[in-house]
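Hi R.,

Here's the chain you asked about this morning:
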Amino acid sequence: MTSGAWVRRAVCLAGLAACLAAAAGGIAVPATGEDFAPRQDLLPVPPPPDAVVVVGAGIEPRVVGMDGAASDWLVEDGELVVTPSPQHANHVHTVDLFEDADLHAEFVVHPRAQGNSGLYFHGWFEMQIFDSHGVDPVTEQDEGSLYRFAKPLVNAARPAGQWQVYDIRYTAPRRGPDGAVTRPGSIVAWLNGKKVQDGVEFDRPRSPYIPYRHGVTDHLRGVEKTLLETGRGPLFLQDHGSPTRYRNVWFVRR
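And here is the predicted structure, written out as tokens:
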């Protein structure tokens, strides 16, 4: 494997048989730091063969706007740049849906609006992107946080203008027939070579700014309905007033 290859290890501590049984029964296996070891030392990281490429060289970004129509974000040399709106609600979301996934995203924050952006899993749970280099102590506002849930374990943010990289293992909450959460979701996240979240759990969104509450459209109501019915939803890239730049965004369904 080359030095730029992305390494994934799917190890269930309870044993392979338990993993297969859990998958067959539709049970979410919580994300843990021991079984997720991404390479982040050499950028860009090529997507593996089974990846769904969202933003990449030579392809049209596989995203749509808040109304389901084509995105108005700028595309430059295989990179996707946020087009900010005064309402901070010009997000885009992936065409492709997933339940559990490993996500890779490379990005550059801009000094404008403190570099504010984010990765919204299913439109509910946000891994923060923010100009946080040198901040001490870090808070739930800073880069590496699961917004409104947990601050980063360490400050791994690079200065504005430098390429940064997230690798995030997302395990979605599970719901029963009545829609109630039967098992919380969890996230393990690496930022610029440092682990910033290690299995933090969540059940329901806490932020009033999620796309289904702030700037919601009929299209997004349908997206959330599908999410509640099937457990499958998109990734949102957030507009929060800053022209954040993305490249090499892809995910692998788990």
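One quick note: The first strand starts at residue 52 and ends at 55.

Cheers,
M.
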